[in-house]
Amino acid sequence: MESDTIHKALYLVKDLSSLSGLSAYTIKYYLKLGLIKEVGRFPETNFRYFDDSTLEALRRVIDLRKDDISLSKIRHIMDKEAHP
Fold first, then answer.
1. Which domain holds residue 26?
2. How confident is the model at residue 82 (pLDDT cuts 50, 70, 90)?
């Protein structure tokens, strides 16, 4: 019998780095600025983990940076998109 449980993809900083092409340092900086958010932490290791929504937000930041938009403006844009 197949399970109806849907498994979400979880990512570590290094996974986000590989998928986005950004350095782990940059991803941690974006976390510090509040541009992206961790979903939680693994209790055993205290490592941050992220999901597909974080990856989508990171890709949004990357797209906006390509248009030379400042990080503070990006944060404002993303806050407005999250809370219309």
1. 13-82
2. confident
